[in-house]
Amino acid sequence: MRVKICGITKPEQGKAIASFGATALGFICVSTSPRYVYVEQIRAVVALLPNNIDTIGVFANTSVEEITQIATDSGLTGVQLHADESPEFCQKLRVNLPDVEIIKALRIRNAADFDKAIAYSTCVDTLLLDAYHPQQLGGTGKTLDWQILQQFNPSCPWFLAGGLTPDNILEALNQVQPSGIDLSSGVERAPGDKDLDKVARLFERLGLGARG
Ligand SMILES: O=C(O)c1ccccc1N[C@@H]1O[C@H](COP(=O)(O)O)[C@@H](O)[C@H]1O
């Protein structure tokens, strides 16, 4: 299972989290977020990582041109689209970034929103389901109704996100079997400052060992 830890801002924390066993690190490229990082900061983290870690930039209603520039300059392996980007937008991005993983995040209120998510499954590589919050786009610490997710069965891989913590992760995974999980505020001391003890506890709970 893929494990993505999102909202990385500090190189040493990124390196440590990769060594605990994360398969992907996420960088918030949304300027209104307290976890916002710019290209040079992302590059400083990426420089300390082994090559097999996915590096995902999180964007919200940013233009195709700007995402392309930031992804290329930062050396990102993937982009996560976290706002109202359409399937057509994803197709345009694919043309510009053919070798970069495109992840479409959907903020789910109820099972009716699954149809919206499925509409993206042929034009992106991966879906990500996050909890809906009326004011915030993400990093809210709010959980989804995991039970309704048992009905969610897309044709592409998907990440479960939204309020996951070391304490609730096993309860979530007892109810749903996503291809990956994505945690941000649930493993933080403060926005953008990861709590390495919480990250270590997450991997212990998952039964996933540290990398050498
Ligand atoms: O973390 C942010 O500040 C953020 C801002 C704008 C869009 C997405 C953001 N974070 C993403 O939110 C989900 C869930 O976070 P949490 O675990 O509930 O704190 C995750 O995918 C983050 O990448």
Automatic annotation (TrEMBL):
* Top EC class, one word: isomerase
Q: Which UniProt keywords apply?
A: Amino-acid biosynthesis, Aromatic amino acid biosynthesis, Isomerase, Tryptophan biosynthesis
Q: In which pathway does it act?
A: Amino-acid biosynthesis; L-tryptophan biosynthesis; L-tryptophan from chorismate: step 3/5
Quote the catalytic activity from the record.
N-(5-phospho-beta-D-ribosyl)anthranilate = 1-(2-carboxyphenylamino)-1-deoxy-D-ribulose 5-phosphate
Q: What terms describe the molecular function in GO for this protein?
A: phosphoribosylanthranilate isomerase activity
Give the EC number.
Answer: 5.3.1.24
Per its UniProt record, what NCBIfam families does this chain match? PRK01222.1-4
HAMAP family hit by this protein: PRAI
What is the recorded name of this protein?
A: N-(5'-phosphoribosyl)anthranilate isomerase
Protein's organism: Chlorogloeopsis fritschii PCC 6912
